What does this fold into?
Amino acid sequence: MQSPENYQESTFRDRPSTFGKDGKRIWIFPKLPKGRLYNYRRIIAWSLLIFVYLAPWLKLRGEPLIFLNFLERKFVLFGNTFYPQDFHLLVLAIIAFVVFIVLFTVIYGRIFCGWVCPQTVFLEFLYRPIEHLIDGNSEQQQKLAEQEMDAIKVLKRILKHGIYLFISFFTILTFISYVIGTSKLCEIFNGWPIQRFGMLMVVLTFTGVHYFIFSWFREQVCTIVCPYGRLQGVMLDVNTIQVAYDYKRGEPRGKGERGIKGDCINCYSCVDVCPTGIDIRNGTQLECINCTGCIDACNAVMKRVKKPSGLIRFASEKAISEGEKIKFNARVIAYSLVLLALLIVITYLFTVRGDVETEIDRSPGTMFQEYGPDRYSNLYNLEMVNKTNSEVDIELRLLTPEGEIIMMGDPLKAEKGEVAKRDLLIVLKKENVKMSNIHVEIGVFEKGKQIDKILSTFVGPNALDH
Ligand code: SF4
Ligand code: SF4
It folds into this structure.
């Protein structure tokens, strides 16, 4: 945090950076950053964008990479199909994910926002570069915005907003194909627009919302809407590693003789590239999405004035105030280990999930039956969920005690995604039924290999009745 005698501008304390004194929006015209970190971000952002647009079309084990069919309650993630029976996995994964996000933020700050959040990726690596291509650089954009409407401005506005609308439309179609699948999407296209008027309205409404967010609302999503952004105040502390200005080295700012002035030459390059319009030299602020644009900008300036880079860098407030480098103290190591453990738990939960889930329960309200002169039987209900992408053929074997399973109806098969229900009898020799309630173990076999073991009970006559 900047020391009190060095405050040069304190309006950042009164209102968000994009609000004027009168409460009206201040439009930001940020420069595109240039530098090592921006190049890394571009690689990550473009990889994410390519993945988002291609994932519904790419297939793995006959299914799309990601398919979130809420209507039929079927979800496919990287070739694994999930059904409502896997709901517990989803709950556990969400809890683990939330804990992960909180811990990650406590240690590494809001880096998610600046590097992988869809809002930033779409805005900074798709919509903003298009704006720079059509309207010119930051100064040219500002000039264009302030000038009277003329033919050139009209043409530029039509071109830019036309492209924005097309991208929004295409993006919404992509998101919809995550829910209904690409083949259904193509079917809908064939029947448009009269036969599918309802769907057309849905697509156009969401296209409008998407276009509004990225053409006009923009950084305000991060600064005044996003709950994750608002929570930063309670998650960050002096040990959190984040984008920070080294005020010890930089102040007092201004162009001056070495030794009298600090290293900050007050060039405002860090402010010019900031997509949320803040001055990071005022310290950590709610609007900072940790995009690292100011780090790249300041490093370029430091190189020009022949001073060491890192005046703005990843550092904790404590490290800066004590003039130290980032230290991986016990807390950071402990939290990182918890993060790693959570990742392992989430991965484990998804890998141990069986492809076939079988439940066998004794039929409610039934008792044992005589089955021939020397055997007893119990009636059971079986439910089998096939979570694979092909048909499964299951065989049940009684593991303990010695006895027999007699299936009723058709052989136990289920198509992909199908839930098969059957009744079955477990038959035991009377001499093996020494108690009124005995445990049975049933093995579930597929192609001769045991894939599951189910425990249940067998009810026999009271021992005194023997
Ligand atoms: S202050 Fe720096 S890291 Fe934060 S949003 Fe602005 S440019 Fe990005
Ligand atoms: S870019 Fe660096 S030198 Fe220029 S104002 Fe920002 S902190 Fe100071």
Remarks:
- Residues 114, 243, 273-276, 278, 280, 288-294 surround iron/sulfur cluster (ligand 1) (CB under 6 Å).
